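Same chain as my last thread, 987 residues:
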Amino acid sequence: MRKRFSLRIMVLALAMLLAGAALSALADEAPVLYEATATAAAKVYANADGNGRVLTTIPKSAALYVTSRSVVNGSVGYYAVLYKNTRGFAAVSEIALNLESVKENDESIYVPVAYGDERTEVAAVQEALKQLGFYSGKADGKFGSVTRQAVTAYQKANGLKQTGAADATTQKKLFEGASKNSKGKAASITTAAASLDYTLRSGHTGPAVIALQSKLKDLGYYKKAVDGQYGAGTVAAVKAFQKAKGLSQTGKADSQTQRSLYGQEAATVSYVSATPTPKPAAAVTAAPTASSAKTYPFTTHTLAAVNLRKYASTSSLRLLTVPKGAEISVASLTSTFVKATYKGTTGYIAIDYVSIPDQYLPGKTLKATENTLKKYAYLPAGSYSKATAVFQEALKELGFFTGSADGYFGAASTSALKAFQKQNGLKQDGIPSPEIQEFVLEGRPLNNKGKKTDVKILPLIADIDLVTGDKGEQVVDLQHQLIYLKFYTGQPTGTFDNATYKAVKAFQQAHNLYVDGKVGAKTRQLLELLAVTPTPAPMLTPTPIPAAQPAAATPVPVSTPLTSKNVVVMRKGVKGEAVKQLQRRLMELGYYTCSVDGVYDSDDIEAVKAFQRKNSLDVDGVAGLQTQIMLYSNQAVAANEEAQPLLPVLTPVPTAYTITVPPSDTTLRIGHSGNAVKALQQRLAALGYYTGKIDGSFGTGTAQAVTAFQKANKLTADGVAGPKTMSRLASASAVAVATPKPTVTPTPAPAASTVLRQGDKGDQVRAMQKRLVALGYLKAADGIYGIQTYNAVTAFQKRNGLKADGVAGAMTLNRLNSTAAVAAAGTAATPAPAVQQVASFKAPSASEVRNANWYSEIRARAKAMPNVVIYDPDTGLHFNLHMFSFGKHADCETPTAADTAVLNQICGVNKWTPHFVWVIFTDGRVYIASIHSHGHGVDHTSGNDLEGHICLHYPRVMTEAEATGPYAVSHQKEILFGWEVTQALAR
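reply #2:
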């Protein structure tokens, strides 16, 4: 059975309105509704006792609603509150009421919505206003200016206060009262309110019914199309569910039924067949389950008002018109018509207007893989999304869709999809399932002329290769990156045209990549590393635009002051680089968690409102001059200013030390840790050789300090602190440097407003990585925000319902360090890494890595120091390696099976494919190189799980590699690529 994940999100949005909240206000107090503000970070509890489950925390100064007077528990008073999607109880002492906002009637079942909101409740209001003639747009759930005008007009026509916001009073009148329509006449509506306390019944329509049908279908009670029409099929499904749950079988989805349906218990209900009660007058069979055979007649319903004709032809005599959602009995069907009976009259109805169970539809069914379901979600009828717009654009390319790719999946989109399915021999259900989307966007389907065609529009999935002719958001991002790096001029078009192709080739040529004009994995990786723009204080200038088009905001030089003459006032629809800068700044301050897309829409409005509220500005969601001046100032207050540091703060190291050294028979080297290393660092610091942290971890900095000491004291300069070095360190004659430098205190962990991005490095990154390792998203913590860390953060964000942009902002770090953080699939709360890593290993920084010639510099050093550590900046893993032969490259062996296991994790098992790495010598020097994992030839070490040896290639002149052969050339190309990545990480 298909599962419509987009609908499931809608269901959850509805369920969250009252999830876990036991609203047990005192019986002798009338329900009221106040506007209120949190005077402190207020916890919202499931019950009015202050000891139950904490549902959420309301930030200080955040706006909320109080839905009942004080509930007293002992000496403590509680308010029943509504904050965003959560209802529960908060302490009276932490809430300040706006007493002028009190409403003395029972309105608390409605969630107030206003300009800038984007939620299911808005879609329900839009549908209702549409039925009354006040609203003509799409019920997309976005409360914009058109919706505000419609609400104002409704309020005026019905004698309500004209606020333009759909408050509880307005919604109560809209969904329960006798409203006047746009012509001033009394009218009723069928749209149901999106509230779990609102009883859904036969005849209702709208988003709440869609959510109900979807949930019932997921649980196996509902077998018909999810069409938002509460007809006989929905009634029967609700009754079946009520029977299974021991509820009164009314067929109405009252509060108790909906709470049971959307609650945790309902998620485990097994499949139950839902068979509607047959009518005595009509001997028809209910639509069979998906597993049963085709049986006739079966009962279904119409999708729209449609003519019932005498014969199977649109030119045949019309017998009558069947209303939308009417129940009919189907005796037979063809690809174009069904033979149906409606209220005793039998005739033919066009099949496109009838809900047909899947097993009756002709054509084959595509299968969805696990990967398909990760990339795509269902796009239900009536939904509005960017993914829908992309899908419409694809159908347009194929010649099946002629409308505007507006992101609204309505009747025209359904009809176009059915035509596509018919042409491609698929079941014509009109449902854009994940497998259908994958076939349209990534396969080679037949177009409307019967020719196999690749569409140019790209699906909204990450890490996709880009080639000439492609279109979509990824191309826009690519062009922005190329503009930033000065390889592309002009404005982004979203089309991978010849100019983009030339720009990509120029970028590849400049960075030693394979020059093919295609954006593959390596080109994409370098672009992402090099085109990470800082967040300057943007000085904006308006761009002239044609009438009725959104403005494109463009930054002007940072040195220019932000004034009323050059500021672009950002309202909904404004686009451009300046909007991206605004979004990044809001993200840094913890207000914005969506993608940096350069479009000022509802998400940005909400973020700006939150910022304005926190910073004592007028809360209007418009990023005007005063808002932007405050936003980019050092005085800007972050979203969670009072939050505790997200990651553990390191304890500062004192500047004075007791001078001790380890015993003279001790040997310490890279990878060691403990008090002996700390004592070594203290002695080296006292002598002026070591300037890092006294942390007891022997990294490259410690090795370099040991090497410098050894050189100054005429010892073998190998970076290994052996007995001779230890004895010399302990002696009074140890030679110090002329002017010892003070030690460096550690960097504190990121505060709530910290934003970590690809290219960042240090203790803050390492602390974040350790948490990702514990949750199973990453394998090692090296302190460098590289590709693997970016992928791990993105995976964490996806699994935890955050915007998956790979940037660790305040929201991501808060979630990451909370007890509610969701671990990777199949991962325990604190898993151990797949391969045991030395906990104290300190990865070198990219700025330490050297690009030196094998023959002139490295080979002699390799002979003197053959034992090295291999570090992979992509994965953060490292292992030990012994070099034993030094010809045109170094032949090597892993000392242990554990080292081989890490090698295989980095390169794959027994692979010849070159992979760039950083090689750490014992004296602390780090070099770029390339390695593989295919064991071959001579084998000196047994028990290391490597048959034979492997090769380690260092940089050399390309002509020298060419003289050796193609495989040597491939390693040199990998080194060139690795050097580009290393330089980008070192920025």
